[in-house]
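WARN no homologs supplied; continuing
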Amino acid sequence: MTSDQSSENKSAGQPAVSDSAAQNSASPSHAESAASTSAHKPVTSDEKGIVAPVSPEIAAAPAAPEPAAPVQAPAPVTQPEASAAPVQNTPEAATGPIVLKSASEALRPEPGTPPPAPKKRKRSRHARSQIVVFANFMLSLLVFLVIGMGALFYFGKVQFTSEGPLAQDSTFFVKRGSGIVEISDQLERADLITDARIFRYGARAYGMEKSMKAGEYAIPAYASMRDIMNIFAEGKSLMHSVTIPEGLTVQQIFDRVANSELLTGDLPKTQPAEGSLVADTLSFTRGTTREEVVNRLKTAQSKLVDEVWAKRREGLPVKDKNEFVTLASIVEKETGVASERPHVASVFVNRLNQGMRLQSDPTIIYGIFGGRGKPADRPIYKSDIEKDTAYNTYIIKGLPPTPIANPGRDALEAVANPLDTKDLYFVADGTGGHVFAATLKDHNENVRKWREVERQRKENPSTGGNGAAPVTPPSP
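OK structure emitted
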């Protein structure tokens, strides 16, 4: 091809090729071979470095006409460069221009392309085992149970140690033989706690279920369940007392014990011997049985008598403990002034030593009325003095067969160690005490004075007095 033809081809928009290239294009076999080679050979872009495969059809297709450009001298093109013409392997490339893309654009997915579906993991044969499924279920259930029990334990502990509903101090009585269930239910009914079950479980958790002692307890305001449990376990219950005055008979003591609302149960069916119960103040807890109180009084009196008897003075006109207590009971009934009991005891000891009758008014009363005692509004008549009973010391010699009351410690010690006197008589002085005399003459004078006091008291009742005096012992 001449240079003029080359220029015409350039002006016509055809690419300029060398003679050899044109020759190769004119040869079909050579073109097919070149197209086949180009289809398997990457085309390189000098500007972007994009590598794209070119099919034989695209390589054999005529290039699209390009807009006119200034004519430049064609550069020699070798066969490899011709085969590296940029081509897109798309349907649009066969009919349109080839669009070059950068590496990032080529790797970016086309718009609207759905994401790849996740691969389904195949469960292993071991995972599909029924034993494994059941084991997983049981493990999960165990975890939930542990969490639930932990929450329940925490809630119960908070309730057990929190302030209680009691707004003011109160008392609570735990009966003997009561179990934790009965105690907790009673506490809830009394509004001392909010939940009996929490109290039971808390006591069991602390190991105090069987450590709670019977008794009456002071419960402070707003005491928690734990505080109440500790109070019961310590056993510091409220103490009550019953006072047995000196000189009461066994029957009178029984009446006092029976009337106490703080005690429970029945009295012993058989009364103990007269003089065998102590005259003292006895402490006890609410709910103590009456029989237990009587037994404690009996035990205490026996111990007291043994103690005083062991310290008695030698030469007393008593043969045994029964006579010792009998004489002490007479001294007890003759005077209520503790300081003059040793003096009264010396009068009776002197009379016994001289073989004189005791001539004690309390013995007459006991012989007539027994343990019930003389009614307060009944005087002693002269006929009573002459009534023949085993206890009438105006008639019998020596001591009566049994005590006539329960003497206290002062009367027992007074008989064990009486004053050393020669007195044989005594009479009331009108002030609650007595005056003593060694002779009948002095005694009669004392009696005269006492009767004058009695006459004035009757004429002027506002002066008061201690009541009737014992009958004056006659001369031996």
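Residues 250 and 271 are 7 Å apart (CA to CA).
OK
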